[in-house]
Write a structure and sequence with these properties.
The chain is α/β, with parallel strands linked by helices. The protein is built from eleven helices and seven strands. It has a single domain, classed as Rossmann fold, CATH 3.40.50. It has a seven-stranded parallel β-sheet with strand order 3-2-1-4-5-6-7, sandwiched between helices. The chain starts with a helix and ends in a 10-residue tail after the last helix. The structure holds nicotinamide-adenine-dinucleotide.
Length: 333
Amino acid sequence: MLQTFLLAFVLAIVLVALIIGAYFYINTRSPPYLHDIPTKDAFVVVTGAASGIGKSTVDLLVAKKCFVFALDLNETLLKESFGDNKQVKIVTVNIANTDQVKEAASVIEQTLSQKKAKLAGLVNCAGVLYREYCGLVETDESEMNRMFGVNVFGLIRMTNAMYPLLGKNASIVNIASIAALIGLPFMSYYSATKFAVRGYSDTLRREFLGMHRVSCVEPGGTISNIAAHTPVVRETSILKDKVGSMFKVLMGDGEPTMQPSSAVAQVIVSCLFSSNAPAHVFADFWNMRVKFFLSHAFGTYLFDSTLEKAYTKPDDEFNKKYSLNKALAGKSE
Ligand SMILES: NC(=O)c1ccc[n+]([C@@H]2O[C@H](COP(=O)([O-])OP(=O)(O)OC[C@H]3O[C@@H](n4cnc5c(N)ncnc54)[C@H](O)[C@@H]3O)[C@@H](O)[C@H]2O)c1
């Protein structure tokens, strides 16, 4: 009797361990991309192409023999990066401006019709972050409009403008963020824009089933220029004394480890050229994927209670360190 009970107990434990292991494996591994769509002479539009993740994506597409329309607001950087490249056509555009997007679309359309081609892909990568960290209730309306104007409405505007130029079974890759998976204090409206991108991508994918493929790539911390312009936490912010505690909880005691933008570009290009591209990919180091999976598995409890505890003991050393924005300031690759 005791033996049967022990055997059933051990079997139950093994079964539970197998289920947890399988769930864990499925949620933390990189998806097995098929890479079954030819890249040679494929025409791809990339926004935010002058720097960071967008630039690395253009570089990788060029290496794979694609022809790339590199779109960005920053003409100087575009010219510096791709001025002489025969596989790249640079198009200066502010995606927050409807007329400029229409103009860019007509330039792209003309080039495509000269080459008798259609677009194989669109990568919506252009994005902006807070200029100055502060709480949700303190964010200026202009800053709120700027972030939504580029990250959400600009991305939608570009998708609408490029849609008529897409070839059969084309791919759209939208860049959200880890901030689309977890609402990050101090990056509140940025987080809200990225949640919006994630939701938009999800619907677009379902509407396009059988027509085009849509993936949403959600990168973790990545070396780029995006945070280089974010100066400090606002001196008068109600959250000023909490910033150190928050970054300590998020990133640990040491300097944060950020992935190179080329790693995210690999994920983007794999999504573009794989017929089994996933709906969502959290692009980060495997240990970050595990950390994130575990914090999700425990619901909001683990993260929130750790934050709450940390908030009660302001950490002056960390506040000083992170209010100087060392946590996120990136170097351009
Ligand atoms: N760097 C990170 O840690 C990180 C993490 C998650 C998600 N992301 C997202 O990745 C994307 C790329 O960011 P990045 O880190 O490479 O930053 P980045 O600043 O290096 O590149 C962003 C590019 O977008 C361009 N851009 C900004 N506003 C524009 C506009 N209105 N019209 C046209 N171009 C415009 C900029 O000129 C810049 O070249 C963004 O959507 C960002 O939110 C970045």
